[in-house]
Input
Amino acid sequence: MRIVVCLKVVPRPEEVKVNLESKTLDRAGARSVLNPADVNALETALAFRDTVGGKVTVLSMGPPQFEPYLRVAPAVGADEAVLLSDRAFGGADTLATSYTLATAIGKIGGADLIVCGEESSDGGTSQVPPSIAEWLDASQATYVERIVSGKSAATVLATRVLENGKETVELDLPAVVSVVVGANEPRFIDYDRWAFAQSASVKVLDFAALGGDPQYLGLKGSPTTVAGLREVRKPGRRREVLTVTADDAAARIKAEIERAGLVRN
Amino acid sequence: MTETTGSSGAVRFNDETWETLSAATRANLCFQCGTCTAACPLADNTPMRVRMLVRRAQFGETDPLIWKCMTCAECNASCPRGVDIVGLVRYLRQGKWRTREVPKGLPTLLWGIFSDGNTFHLPPKDRAAWMQDVKVPGRGSTLLYVGCTASYDPRAQRTARSVAKLLNLAGVEYQVMGTDEICCGEAARSVGNEGLYDDLQERNSAAFRQRGIERVITISPHSFDALKVGQAKYGGPPVVHYTQALEELCDSGKIVSKVEKRVVTYHDPCYLGRHQGVFESPRRLLELTGLKLIEMRNNRAQSLCCGGGGGRMWMETDPSERPGPRRVAEAAGTGAELLATACPYCISVFESERGSEPIPVTDVAELLASGARG
Output
């Protein structure tokens, strides 16, 4: 089984500032982390590989300084790491990003299964995994918490988390799945592999190595424009301290909830 | 360390591992007298038996109950053969990381330390929030290493502020690392992840060198032990606990503290006392303030663990297995008006588990600061 995990390096949410004029995120000075849902995706992929065998490649797009973050993947058990890095890829929206990732997946030999996080903590669109599936004409399942072998070697079973329950679907391979954040507890770094992960080179592909249609790359390939941006303030908390005894606490709290109109009878 | 899971489900390690393990811990010398089990504070309320744990290791097996151990070292202190049982527990836990059979939640704890630099999953940018109104000189070659708990836990932050205020009062020139400070690795080491512990020691050592640090004062006895052991390997500066640093300042007359005369009892934190042998400094500080110190029956090397060591702060403990309430009851039973200690974990555990015992729990530095003048 050839498995590709798409991994994004994101700024720490609490350290990002929003530039209201340029309508972009100002990431200067913000420290980075691996996108949390992508770490769950990596664990899903490694656990599946551990049962069916095969190879896990992590794939990311970003500047060369993301390399150290990608080295974490081989340290937890991934087989190789690939970074797509070129000015030509910069300024990409979800369409251009998914095109670049899909092109790279073809370039590195294709994949049977592509595992992504449900969404990135900075962009938050959830559009990239389904778009990769479209570019590759692959089957897809979103909000997956678990993957197991299917009825034949050409399929996998993916369990999706829905609002009102769970659904298991059988996907023909190749397939793209997006994994819900918190789906599993990601295994921690194996320090016996740490030295290997530090010395193993992250394979960097630039535009020349990737190929692809420049019309679909980077800013040029991105039809999305941010039309407007406004600050939404959190509503203030309404709170009141009630001095109650254990005996009348429940009744008093119930009365307060009813008074606030929070329950319908 | 090579481990395989046999048909019985027991994890077995090979002879080579046993050779390494017994050379490091002297576990081969154990003759199964059971003194360790008799000394273990968990022996009467949990199924873990220290003697059994060592015996199973001698047969090449890892006892699945190793995670209950608080690494309090009562067993080490009592062993007539000098076996490093705490070392053995850490070693066996290391093997469990390799076979990925660790309790739920521990990988998440280590990811938090790895990516946020703390055990609380809180942003690194909030690490200096403990300081509030405290001004730090920011000069000199002494570092006040605050540690994760005293940086983020609102209760323990009070201890950190008290220590800083006392150092200020004494005119000590010192630095704090603020938002650049990272975890000492105590949690990683106690749950058996030596790799992360070592990585943090190396990074801390480089940071100390860059700042020209020649002496480190810690708030937590756990940081004290972790940094003292770890920095020795990386040629880092000497490390002391705050009770030692404050004792020096009191002795040289730079801090004078007098508080209302009350009766206090002192709980020896395992990592300050049994692990690092600091028994008298905190007691002297209490007495210098004019407090009357009375001892619990289990004091100094016989102190009873609060239950927070050995990574237990990050694992769920069934209420019936918690040693904290028994220790608070012992303290209250002395008739003391106050229970003083010098460890953020102990305070956290005692305050949450004292139940109906009316005895207030406090920190030695807080008592000292409450009555201090320069």
